[in-house]
């Protein structure tokens, strides 16, 4: 039997993907600000809330909000997979012709979505970045580390990476499909999206303080993001290891000449300090080089394993499609055929689907 087209997905102009992890405190404020903005757009939309294995009442609150907000769609991951993996799950299964990704903490204003969509349509853009023009709400240390991060990635990946652009952006369907076709597992969208080279624009805004809850990007995760950005998008650290090895060779050569000279003049005891420092230096350089090599070998090992980066526990869109299939038609015929499943997964909400299981181009 031929499957009927997914008319709901076809009518969806805008999808808003929101990764969430333990956001029960900020959820009411998020819904109260986001829903009026989307309602005023006058287009078909969906809100794809990706619950990244939350351990608080996030899933319960989402289910309660969905009772009065049918456009709210909930995707629950079976375990906490990380922010970028949750974002991938939302992008993989979003239906919209345009897809906006935004965090739940309200530091990026939902009101800018209207401007993003208008700019993309007016100038036929595939990407619209949200640029943080003012980060006064962040701590001095946060601003300093963020500035250091963007200078580093722009130096490695090129000036196409916009400075002060986080994960608040709009993507066209063509850009989303291009991202889905990439084989990367440990994804950093701040680098992958500019790498596509699609026509892009910018919308600037002031970054607001988080109204409730705690940041999900502490120092440890920020460092991990920086390491993934560097090792996943550039071989420069390996070249740094080569330069360190060359410098260490020159130091060893100088120490060898000094040692031979000291032995010739019978000044062997004073040379102990320089020899000891030289041994420590060479050992440190070797450990740094081995660590850099280990980062790349680890990424190769992960790619060879080809394990899915996330598993879907449930998707309310699949449940809604099943309910619609059971309803009798107006002419009294049996239930209409089931709609096509969302992109990247099965219509069975309980079946695990993942990035690694979809067809790779």
Automatic annotation (TrEMBL):
Residues 345-354 have a biased composition (Low complexity). One of its GO terms (molecular function) is glycosyltransferase activity. This is Glycosyltransferase family 2 protein. Its main location: membrane. It comes from the Bacteria. Belongs to the glycosyltransferase 2 family. GtrB subfamily. Residues 15-178 form the Glycosyltransferase 2-like domain. PANTHER family: PROPHAGE BACTOPRENOL GLUCOSYL TRANSFERASE HOMOLOG, UNDECAPRENYL-PHOSPHATE 4-DEOXY-4-FORMAMIDO-L-ARABINOSE TRANSFERASE-RELATED. It is found in: Cell membrane. It is a multi-pass membrane protein. Pfam families: Glycos_transf_2. Residues 322-361 are annotated as: Disordered. One of its GO terms (cellular component) is plasma membrane. The chain crosses the membrane at residues 240-260, 272-293. Keywords: Cell membrane, Glycosyltransferase, Membrane, Transferase, Transmembrane, Transmembrane helix. The lineage of its organism: Bacteria, Bacillati, Actinomycetota, Actinomycetes, Kitasatosporales.
């Amino acid at each position: 039997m031929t499957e009927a087209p997914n008319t709901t997905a076809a009518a969806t102009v805008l999808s808003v993907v929101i990764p969430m992890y333990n956001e029960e405190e900020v959820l009411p404020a998020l819904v109260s600000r986001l829903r009026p903005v989307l309602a005023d757009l006058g287009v078909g939309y969906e809100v794809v809330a990706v619950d990244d294995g939350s351990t608080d009442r996030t899933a319960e609150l989402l289910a309660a909000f969905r009772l009065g907000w049918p456009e709210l769609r909930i995707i629950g991951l079976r375990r906490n997979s990380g922010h970028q993996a949750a974002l991938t799950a939302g992008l993989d299964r979003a239906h919209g012709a345009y897809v906006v990704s935004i965090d739940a903490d309200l530091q990026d204003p939902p009101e800018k979505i209207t401007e993003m969509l208008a700019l993309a349509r007016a100038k036929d853009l595939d990407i619209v970045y949200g640029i943080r023009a003012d980060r006064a709400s962040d701590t001095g240390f946060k601003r300093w580390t963020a500035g250091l991060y963007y200078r580093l990635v722009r130096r490695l990946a090129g000036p196409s990476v916009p400075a002060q652009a986080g994960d608040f952006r709009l993507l066209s369907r063509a850009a989303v499909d291009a991202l889905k076709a990439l084989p990367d597992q440990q994804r950093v969208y701040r680098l992958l999206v500019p790498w596509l080279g699609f026509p892009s624009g910018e919308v600037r805004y002031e970054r607001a303080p988080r109204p409730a809850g705690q940041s999900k990007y502490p120092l440890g995760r920020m460092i991990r993001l920086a390491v993934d950005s560097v090792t996943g998008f550039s071989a420069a650290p390996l070249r740094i290891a080569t330069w360190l090895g060359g410098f260490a060779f020159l130091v060893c050569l100088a120490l060898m000449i000094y040692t031979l000279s000291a032995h010739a003049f019978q000044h062997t005891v004073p040379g102990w300090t320089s020899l000891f420092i030289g041994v420590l230096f060479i050992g440190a350089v070797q450990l740094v080089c081995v660590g850099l090599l280990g980062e790349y070998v680890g990424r190769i090992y992960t790619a060879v394993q080809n394990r899915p980066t996330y598993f879907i526990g449930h998707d309310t869109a699949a449940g809604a499609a099943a309910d619609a299939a059971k309803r009798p038609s107006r002419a009294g015929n049996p239930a209409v055929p089931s709609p096509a499943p969302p992109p990247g997964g099965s219509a069975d909400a309980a079946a695990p689907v993942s990035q690694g299981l979809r067809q790779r181009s």
